[in-house]
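[audit] Reproducing an earlier prediction to check determinism. Same input, same settings, fresh worker. If the tokens differ from the archived copy the diff job will pick it up downstream; this log only records the rerun itself.
[audit] input (96 residues):
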Amino acid sequence: MSKVHPLDDRVVVKPTEKEEVRPSGIIIPKTAQAKATEGIVIAIGEGRPLQDGERGKMSLKIGDRVIYARYGGTEVVVDDVKLVILREPDVLAIKE
């Protein structure tokens, strides 16, 4: 799906946006919500270059649902789809 190929230890994440409903039943529109911090990994780089010329192993794989740092990464739009390009250390957890 992705036409973006991340370099080194970067990953491309498609943020998952959801409509938020408060306990009182009030629906918070997407435009009024905080920036998404969850998404699905759609592309991964080859790994960080090491001093011996090898590449470090990536902990993530395509399809992982992840939680990432709120202000980490760079937002880009590719084919009208909003994506976030992050360094692997900006990914905080894999969601089961």
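[audit] rerun output stored. Observation attached for the diff report: The mean pLDDT is 83.
[audit] end
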